[in-house]
Amino acid sequence: MELMMAIWLSSVPKITFKIIKAMSNDQKPKTGTIGWTEIVTHNQSATDAFYTQMFGWSQEQMQMPDCPPYTIFKSGEDHVAGSVTPPDAPEAPSTWLTYINVEDLDAAVAKARELGATIRKERVDLPMGSFAIITDPQGATFAVWQPTGSCDEE
Asked: Which of 24, 27, 69, 95 could form a disulfide with 147 if both were Cys (CB 3.0 to 4.6 A apart)?
């Protein structure tokens, strides 16, 4: 499991750009609230079909350079979640990754480390914000997200 997680985490910067725009939405999010969630899967078409049928979500496909397509699930006009195939991690397990909003990413990572968490992916800076991926002492993995407020595309 550790090796699979490490392989998947190495691909994270490649799979996130335009979708994180939906996480920022030009509003200052409240620290500790859920900002976004995405499922990482090796059978994206089957996964997308399942969640579309399960919850009645519609889909919006985004093609990103040098990456598999990213699916944004929508409930009406609201973006509710995403799905992606990890580009360089065929052995990684399918999993949901939840992004939790923070005001100070570095402070949040330091606090997590103090509390016994493992930092799986150190700070990744994107035009619209920064994130890190953390596994808590009980083994649950999540991301912390600090938006910059800029949602301009590259």
From this structure: 24
Confidence at residue 13, expressed as pLDDT on a 0 to 100 scale: 43
What domains are there in the chain, each with its CATH number?
Answer: 2-147 (3.10.180.10)
Query: What residues contact residue 45 under an 8 Å CB cut-off, 6+ apart?
Result: none
Q: What would the pLDDT profile of 88-112 be if each residue is shown by its tens digit?
A: 766 778 899 999 999 999 999 999 9
Strands (E), the chain: 34-40, 58-62, 70-75, 78-84, 95-101, 118-126, 129-135, 141-147
Containing 54, the helix (H) or strand (E) segment is helix 44-55
pTM for this model (two decimals)? 0.76
Q: Two tokens at 8?
A: 């998947």
